[in-house]
Amino acid sequence: MSYLLALGSAVLYGAADFLGGLASRRASTLVIVVVVQAAGLLPLLVLLPFLPGALSRPDVLWGAAAGLAGSAGVGLLYRALAIGTMSIVAPTTAVCAVVLPVAIDAAGGERLAVGTWLGIGLALAAIVLVSQHDATSPPAFAPGVAESPGGSEAVLPSRPPDTWNVVASPRAPGALPPGLALAFVSGVAIGLFFVALARTSPGAGLWPLLVSRSVSLVLFSAGVLARGQSMRLPRDVRRVALACGVLDMLANALYLVATRGGPLSVVVTLASLYPASTVVLARLVIGERLSRRQTAGVVCALVAVVLIVRNP
Question: Is 303 exposed, middle or buried (CB count within 10 Å of its CB: 0-12, 13-18, 19+)?
Fold first, then answer.
């Protein structure tokens, strides 16, 4: 049952990330994250009575740590998804998020199977492949609104029919694809989030999630206030952000419950299969295209996660 819950969380995480990245292409990432974090409180409050518990001091501290790491991870992830190719950003983030908990377990004395080491090696190869850029592949220009470096919205050149896609800009030979560096850092932060949340006690119920979400919401709200940004969003963007928040919290709840009954290394890596749904949605909804090397990298990333899962 724990493994099924972890897989369910992966499906929801991937869908939530797709929606969060999509919304961040039309508005400030900070504002989107605040709306997403706030929207997640409603399903959490509904679920709390069904999984009651009592918070101890360590649970509060681990929940707060998860909130700090999750804040950094989700903010960087949505920004990377907004400026980069989702089908590249999501697997890269997932690979980093998988390798970190496995490395922590190994440092703690856990012996790793040969298949796990093969998975880690394949994950590194995947990162190299997805960072490759095919100069002959045409960029997918599309209209919409993107966030400028200063945090303001900038109108993009219009080209129908997709108003949610991102405009690709020319890059120097050898430069990393847009958002890939952010994806690396985001993956590390998400890995820390997974580890911190799993360290909470089974008797805490879903309360650590409430602590985590509260910390995250306060941090991002303070960021919006400090930058003097408006919380107003176009109706379609607001709906996408709200849906993202609900799915993200449901995924968090499934993951937390899964960690109560299964090994952390397996549950974390199963939950990190989330790029599969992100990639599928990006292909079906906004028609993202990858070069052959990047496609091979995405496949390697997913296979790497599977190898680590099968050989905890």
Answer: middle
CB 288 within 8 Å of CB 282: yes
Is the four-CA dihedral 181, 186, 189, 195 of positive or negative sign? negative
pLDDT tens digit string along 245-274? 999 999 999 988 888 877 777 787 778 778
Name, of 159-163, 200-204, 308-312, the range with top average pLDDT.
200-204
- Overall domain count for the chain: 1
d(CA 272, CA 118): 17
In this predicted structure, what is the pLDDT of residue 19? Answer: 92
Burial class (CB in 10 A: 0-12, 13-18, 19+), 59: buried
Q: What is the mean pLDDT of residues 191-218?
A: 89
- For residue 181, what are the contacts with CB-CB under 8 A and spacing of at least 6? none
Give tens-digit pLDDT for 207-256. 999 999 999 999 889 989 998 888 888 999 999 999 999 999 999 999 88
Among 165, 72, 173, 190, which Cα is nearest to 131's?
173
Look-up: residue for tokens 């790497």?
304
Our CA angle for 309, 117, 191, nearest 5°, is: 55
- Phi, psi at 288, each rounded to 5°: -65, 145
d(CA 191, CA 187): 6
Residue 29: give the domain boundaries.
2-310
The one-character DSSP state at 49 is G
Q: How confident is the model at residue 128 (pLDDT cuts 50, 70, 90)?
A: low
- DSSP character for 153? E
- The three-class DSSP label of residue 147 is strand
What are the DSSP calls for 281-312, one per residue?
HHHHHS-----HHHHHHHHHHHHHHHHHHH--
CA atoms within 13 A on the CB side of 186: 22
Q: Which two tokens stand for residue 268?
A: 């974390």
Tell me which of 248 and 302 has the higher pLDDT. 248
